[in-house]
Write a structure and sequence with these properties.
One of its GO terms (cellular component) is cytosol. This protein is of the alpha/beta class. It is built from 17 helices and 13 strands. The radius of gyration is 23 Å and the shape is globular. The structure holds (2S)-2-hydroxybutanedioic acid.
Length: about 450
């Protein structure tokens, strides 16, 4: 409604009225005509997954959705998750009662500790609140909804995303009517970070803008700022009074180390920023379908901080109650069982190293094969420079469609590949496909 002129609105209302009239006269079975509910396009990522499943070619390869696969291209239930599952199933006190609105306290507390660090000043000063959400997407949504209601800024002022970013960010923020702009992030020429572009756009954004940042393992590019660059980003955000919103879907996946991967967030907190964080446990626990995640809000230090956080917490609870009432229990119970037990926690870290390590091996193998095929040393260096679940290969949309058609290798149109879809059995095949489509379209 916000984008329509008064005349367009009047026409729409008339059309609605005549639809309703037609419906009531019995010559029309719906009031939801195509001009009111147009056919929406299929979600590109889930559409890709469906197309892959339908493909019966034996050597097909799925490099689409960001979900970990083992060396046999199979989903991997983390051994530590199996143990936690067993513990839960044997618990005679387990029931299916509702969780509190804010979720399982043991889970949200452990999730907060994991992201902020046990000795975080925000935890010590009790100026952080954590709410269990429907995984990372739910956390991004809850944050966006909260900001759309309460962030004191002109309604026309946009939220800034990296270009590119995870496609769903656009939908989630648009759904709560927050206007969106982007800051440069990926440089197609270096296939690395466009740091100058990023910094200057954030610097020239209207004062007090919301800046969405990927905490680690940037999706879709696999390109992260260095620590020194993060410090400079923080400096500009501080100077412009912007509000940082961190999305953290890959803690433990970028470096294989949970502390390292939380560094940027912890640095911002140590600098006294008021900020929020969306945290997902889909990837690092392999709990994709269980939708375990958390939203954290950290307010700045000060005598009134605990009151501020209590007010914010009360409003978050109202939003949560009206949308999902209370979050689902199972995934949070699994994660909580692991996060709160030092032995299981150590085993989880080992499982994380297994996943991150296999991905690093695949990066090396893919790069080596590609450079062997084109004879140009260093030409695919970005594959090993990038980190986390994804690599932004630099393949064009045309090349992506060609490799899918000729080799049955599935990746998103922007040339992103999920490294976890590669394994020792298919990496050479994929490299040959990539090499061929690149050479043919050069
Ligand atoms: C991805 O980007 O592949 C994942 O984050 C899955 C999703 O929900 O988009």
């Amino acid at each position: 409604m916000r984008n329509s002129s008064p005349t367009q609105e009047a026409t729409k209302s008339l059309s609605r009225l005549s639809n309703i009239k037609g419906h009531m006269e019995g010559n029309n079975p719906t009031v939801f005509h195509a001009d009111i509910v147009p056919q929406a396009p299929e979600d590109p990522l889930f559409g890709l997954m469906a197309a892959y499943r339908k493909d019966d070619f034996e050597k097909k390869v799925d490099l689409g959705i960001g979900a970990y696969r083992d060396n046999n291209a199979k989903p991997w239930v983390l051994p530590v998750v199996k143990k936690a599952d067993e513990i839960l199933r044997r618990d005679p006190n387990l029931n299916h009662e509702y969780l509190p609105i804010a979720g399982l306290p043991d889970f949200t507390n452990a999730a907060q500790k994991l992201i902020l660090g046990a000795d975080s000043p925000a935890r010590q000063e009790q100026r952080a609140v954590s709410i269990q959400t429907i995984s990372g997407t739910g956390a991004v949504h809850l944050g966006a909804l909260f900001l759309s209601r309460f962030y004191p800024r002109p309604t026309s002022q946009p939220v800034y995303f990296s270009s590119p970013t995870w496609a769903n960010h656009n939908q989630v923020f648009s759904n709560v009517h927050l206007p969106i702009k982007t800051y440069p992030y990926f440089s197609p020429s270096t296939k690395g970070l466009d740091f100058t572009g990023m910094l200057s756009t954030i610097e020239s954004a209207p004062e007090g803008s919301i800046i969405l940042l990927h905490a680690c393992a940037h999706n879709p590019t696999g390109v992260d700022p260095t620590r020194d660059q993060w410090k400079q980003i923080a400096k500009v955000i501080r100077a412009r009074n912007h509000f940082p919103f961190f999305d953290c879907a890959y803690q433990g996946f970028a470096s294989g180390d949970l502390e390292n991967d939380a560094w940027a967030i912890r640095y911002f907190v140590s600098q006294g920023f008021e900020l929020c964080i969306a945290q997902s446990f889909a990837k690092n626990f392999g709990l994709y379908g269980e939708r375990a995640g958390a939203f954290h809000f950290v307010t700045g230090s000060g005598p009134d901080a605990q009151n501020t956080i209590a007010r914010i917490s009360s409003q978050l609870a109202i939003l949560q109650r009206s949308e999902i009432s209370n979050p689902p229990a199972y995934g949070a119970r699994i994660a909580s069982t692991v996060l709160n037990d030092p032995i299981l926690f150590a085993e989880w870290e080992e499982n994380l190293r297994t996943m991150a390590g296999r991905i690093i091996d695949m990066r090396k193998a893919l790069r080596a094969k590609l450079e062997e095929l084109n004879g140009k040393e260093g030409s695919w260096k970005h594959i090993t420079d990038q980190i986390g679940m994804f690599s932004f290969t630099g393949l064009t949309e045309k090349q992506v469609l060609k490799i899918r058609e000729e080799f049955h290798v599935y990746m998103t149109k922007n040339g992103r590949i999920s490294m976890a879809g590669l394994n020792t059995g298919n990496v050479e095949y994929v490299a040959k496909g990539m090499d061929k489509v690149v050479k043919e379209t050069e």
